[in-house]
Design brief:
The chain has helices at 6-18, 36-49, 92-111, 119-143, 147-160, 175-187; strands at 26-27, 32-33, 53-61, 64-73, 76-86. By secondary structure, the chain is α+β, with helices and mostly antiparallel strands. The radius of gyration is 25 Å and the shape is elongated.
């Protein structure tokens, strides 16, 4: 933790006592949320009333937007730390969206206030986790694909599609097939060796 003067700490505590959560004023595809402007209007005036200046600085990082919120009291500075948000695509729209998102979260972090549940971020994280799980499952399947496991996976595939053949490699399995196979295998409580319990 950064050492700050007692006066700065008192100013921070006075501000924190009066900061209220921002009111949701935007609707995304999954949930409502407080815009950056609503968060700014809920937080910055309270800091300013306590002689605390709020600034946000951008930092360079490949493939991400990074923002650091800095609170300044006289000649003392307290940083929220750098908050990165990965870019989802190319072009000004992707950059602007990530920048606004990052500024909002960095300011909320510096103010110590929570956010409403952010289902947009949750959906993106779930999609990334699902892809990671499927990639890991494919790698494990490729490493462990023996004649017995081919037959076992073929049997699981046939439970989904009676016409399916035994796979010759893990790479030939599509993500939906792999998902279905994982569900079938999960119902059977598979051990690491691939035998049923």
């Amino acid at each position: 933790m950064t050492n700050i003067s007692e006066a700065f700490l008192e100013a921070l505590l006075a501000a924190q006592r009066n900061i209220k959560h921002a009111i949701d004023n935007k609707a995304g595809p999954y949930a409502t949320y407080a815009s950056y402007e609503a968060l700014h209007d809920a937080v910055v005036p309270v800091f300013n009333e306590n002689n605390i200046h709020v600034a946000q600085q951008s930092h360079e990082r490949p493939g991400a937007v990074c923002i650091e919120t800095v609170l300044q009291f006289g000649n003392e500075v307290l940083s929220s730390g750098v908050v990165p948000v990965p870019l989802k695509g190319d072009g000004p729209q992707a950059f602007g969206s990530a920048m606004t998102y990052c500024r909002r979260y960095s300011l909320g972090l510096a103010a110590g206030i929570g956010h409403q549940s952010d289902d947009d971020a949750m959906a993106a994280e779930e999609a990334a986790l699902k892809t990671s799980i499927l990639d890991a499952a494919r790698s494990v399947a490729a490493a462990a694909l023996t004649d017995d496991s081919r037959a076992y996976i073929g049997q699981a595939r046939r439970e989904v599609d009676p016409e399916a053949e035994d796979p010759q490699s893990a790479e030939e399995l599509t993500n939906p097939e792999l998902e279905k196979i994982l569900k079938v295998m999960g119902k059977r409580k598979i051990t690491v060796e691939g035998t049923e319990q």
